[in-house]
Amino acid sequence: MIRKVLVANRGEIAVRIMRSCREMGIRTVAVYSDADRKAMHVIYADEAYHIGASPSSESYLNMDKILEVAQKSKADAIHPGYGFLSENAVFSERCQQVGIKFIGPQPYAISQMGDKITARKTMIAAGVPVVPGTESAIASEEEALKTVAKIGLPVMVKASAGGGGKGMRLVKNEKDITSSVRAARSEAKSAFGDDAVYIEKYIESPHHIEFQILADQHGNVIHLFERECSVQRRHQKIIEETPSPILTPQIRDEMGKAAVAAARAVNYEGAGTIEFIVDSQLNYYFLEMNTRLQVEHPITERVVGVDLVKEQINIASGKVLTLKQEDLQQNGHAIECRVYAEDATNNFMPAPGKVTHITIPYGVGVRVDGYIYEGFEIPIYYDPLIAKLIVWGRNREDAIERTIRALQEFKITGVKNSLNFLENIMTAPDFVKGNYTTHFIDENIEHLLSHDACVGDCEDMVVIAALLEYLYRIRKASPKEMTTLKNNWKDYSRIRSVLKL
Ligand code: MV4
C-alpha cells in the first residue's frame, strides 16, 4: 500500500504527478533546489524539503540526498518523473535496497534498454523489427566496411550508450566510413565512458511514432496506441498528436503487438514507451525504449481515457491491471503543444526570466499542464518547458482549430516564449495535411519564422500604447482603420519593428 510519494522532480511534471496522488489520497513530498524555493511543486506538495544548490547535479540528481529525504519523511515510494533520475538503473536499485518503491521499471529493464546494442539484440530475439544493421558492437573498421557493403549507404553510426539523438553520425560516402566509426567511438568514449558503436541503415525521411505500454507485476502487458512525434527540432519534440495521421488500422495493430512483445522481452513493469521510426512505405522499426513516463503522455490519457500516473502507482503497489486490451480504443484526436521559454527568432535560445503576466486558456477540450504563476522567476538551470497545452477534438481538423483558439487565448509576458511559433505550426500547410516527417521544422522554417515567431518580450500594454501612437502619429489613421490594423497581426509586428520595440 502506497500512502506517501516523494516526487523526485520539479516543474509541470512534479505538479502533474502530485495531482494524481492527491486524487488517490496519497500524501506528497516535494524536494527542491535553491532556485526552486518558490516553485509550484513546493507549494502544491504536503511537505517539501530543500536538497541543495540550483545545478541539477547538486539537487535533483543527488541520490543520497533524495533517499535521505525519502526516509526522513517516511515516503513509501519515489516517483522520478522524466529526465533527472528517471532512467537511472542505479537509482532504481538503491530505492529497492532501502525498502522504498521506485515507481518505474526494475533496474534490469532500465539497463537492458539503456544499452542500445543489448536492446537491439533483445528485440531481434523477440521478433520485433529493427532497422537493418549490425547485431552486435562493431569490432573493427573492416567489420564496419563489410556491414556497409551488405546494407548499402547511407548508414548511421550510433553509440550503444547514446540514445535520444546523442552520439549519432550519418555517413553518406564510402570514404567516410572508417573515419566516422573512429570519431563516433571516441565521442562515445568521452561522453558515456563506453566506446561501443553499431551501424544501422539510414532511414531517409522517417516518422517518429511511439507506442505507450503498461505492464503490471503479474505478466499483463497492454499498449495504449501511438503518439506521432515527428514535429521536433534537434531531438527536442515540439508537437505530438494521437492518432498518427499516417497509420492504417492494420499497421497500428501490428505495431501495438510489437510494442507489447518488446516490453515482455525485458519483463517490463510500469509505464514505458516503444519508439519506432516509420518510413514512407509504413515499414516500422524499433529504435529505442524509454523506460519512464514521457512528457507527451497526456495526449494518450485524453484519447484513451486513462490516468497514466494512477496506473503507474497501482502497478508499483502490486495491483493487477484492470484495463483490458480489447476494451481500449482511441476516441477522437489530441494534440500537445510544448510551450517553451525560448526565442525562436534567435536560434531557439532559452529565455529564462520573470513571468510578469500569464493568461491560461480554458474551455471545451483544453487541458494545460504547467507550473508557472505571475511573478515566478523561471530558473536558468533546467529545461525551458513552461507548459503543455493538450487539446482534444472529435477529429484532427477540430483538434487543430481548437488548438489555434487556445494558443490565441494563451498569453505569457516577461519571458520570450514559443506560443506564436506553435500557432505558425498549426497553420503550416504541411502540418495541416498531416503527412509530415522529422524534417518538418527544417523544411518549413521560413513559414514558421515569417510571422511573429516569438512573443512575450514586452508587456501587452506597451505594445498597445505603441500601436496607438503609431496609428495616430505616423499613419494618421481613422478609427475604422485603427481597428482593422489592430486585428492584423502582420501590421502589428511591423509597428513593433518601426517603433524598435
Ligand atoms: C535513425 C534515423 C534514421 N535512420 N536511425 C534520432 C533520435 C534517436 N532516437 C534515433 N534517431 C534517429 N535514428 C536510422 N537508422 C533518424 C533518427 C532521427 C530522428 C528519429 C526520431 C525523431 C527525430 C529524429 C530526428 C533526426 C534523426
Please characterize this protein's 3D structure:
By secondary structure, the chain is α+β, with helices and mostly antiparallel strands. 38% of the residues lie in helices and 25% in strands. It has 19 helices and 22 strands. Helix 4 (89-97) packs antiparallel against helix 5 (107-114), helix 7 packs across helix 8 and helix 12 runs antiparallel to helix 13. The structure holds ligand MV4. Ligand MV4 binds next to strand 8, strand 12 and strand 13.
Task: Describe what is shown at a glance.
The protein is α+β, with helices and mostly antiparallel strands. Helices cover 38% and strands 25% of the residues. The mean pLDDT is 93.
CATH superfamily of one domain: ATP-grasp fold, B domain
Q: Roughly how many Å is the radius of gyration? A: 24 Å
Pairing-aware structural class of the strands and helices?
A: alpha+beta
Largest sheet: 8 strands, antiparallel
